[in-house]
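Annotated sample (chain length 214).
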Amino acid sequence: MVSTKFIKQTKQLELTMTQMGQDCLKGLSFCRHALYDRDKTLIQEINELHEDVSANGRECEQICMRILLLQHPVAKDLRKITVATNTVRDMTRIMDQEKEVADLVCRIQDTDVEIDGTIHDLFSIAKEMISGAISAYMQKDEDIAHEVIKLDDKADSLYIDTKELYIEKLAAKTGNAETLVDLLLVGKYLERICDHAVNIAKWVLFQKKGIYEE
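Output written by the structure step:
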């Protein structure tokens, strides 16, 4: 029989993880507006979100540890805790990458720089993948998880286009070199965010099948 304390702990874990997911989506939106609207006042809000996500991540890991040490979960529940722990780590890393994007945006001084459309598209697909991955985890939905994984090819293709474009601009010396490198790195961090969303989707499938596919 499942103990009342175990139910309360898993409920608290789910609520905290939901908040982490919402903060990751909010942070991505702030990064996008900070870059395109040149609104650097959002950088501080992103930094605060990063602190919140890090704190909530630590809280989730502590809850998982208490469950493992005190509740002695059976195999099915143990798998659930394993999935939660790894999902928390990937959400924390998503927010880490968003902070990196925010730091890059803060450095960009060239207000007349033209930002390539592929970066805009990377923001859009990153939002779709994060949202999908969180929904897949909360709903334990394999179909949504598979859709997130499929989107990774599109994210990779967009990053390749971004990289090629900015390398060409650097070679041709068209624009401020430092700004071009920073924009290239923005694309790279967005691609990494998509990778972490894929990881979450794969953990959803692991919870169902017991197999984590690399």
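Annotation: The chain is about 85% helix and 0% strand.
Annotation: The chain has a mean pLDDT of 91.
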